[in-house]
Protein: Enoyl-CoA hydratase/isomerase family protein
Amino acid sequence: MSGEITIEPWSQIQGEDAGIFSVEIVNPEKLNAMTRKMWRQLKAIFEDIQKNHMARCIVVQSHGGNFCAGGDIAEYPAFRFDPDSLAAFHEEDVWGGLNAMLSCDVPIVASIAGVCMGAGVEIASCCDVRWVSENASFGAPIAKLGFPMAPKELHLVASAVGAHTAKRMLLEAAVFSAQDMAATGWCAQPLPALRLHERVEGVARRIASLSPQAARLNKQAMRSLSLNEAVPAPYAYAASAEHCEGVTAFIEKRSANF
Structure:
């Protein structure tokens, strides 16, 4: 198996958990390491999700017990030793996938178990909410391979995990436990592995039950604010159906129908 990124509805039962989708990293023979093809698939999938107005929550998870061990190092000799091909890999393939996630207005929940290294930390850092199992481990020990983290990817990771943790990952090749990462605020409190799926499912259902318009507008605003940009037309939603329904439902003491 050469590895792939897949997407499918969370539930195969018609109408159940509508709007929740699972995006899965599938390369279990290599601890779900990312290939160039998989980065391109990740980009295409999240670009399609952005256009899908029925999508309410995305769960990013993996196949086979490990989230993602990093990049597929077996591919590296084909492009890493030339500056132009190396730049194309990072700026087009890797950043293409990560930026598609960052630009997605649909809430993204990460479900992380086992090994989460390098590319895995980058993908998880693009998610809005991160739930992890107690057996998860995190790092980016690429100094052992003789290269640094690409600038855009470094900015992403340092912004998410904090500068000190990022420096330890890169300069010490330090590996952190789930409890270590929770202490930084990067993820929620770790759970026993057998409870992770149940918790993530509950979180996804909770998000999907709320206003999708509010979620998308919140993500757009947070993205603008992170770039020190003004939020465009922040009150344009005033007369929208979801706004009116939410307020009316509260006054009428009933659940809102979003």
Observations:
- The CA atoms of residues 45 and 54 lie 15 Å apart.
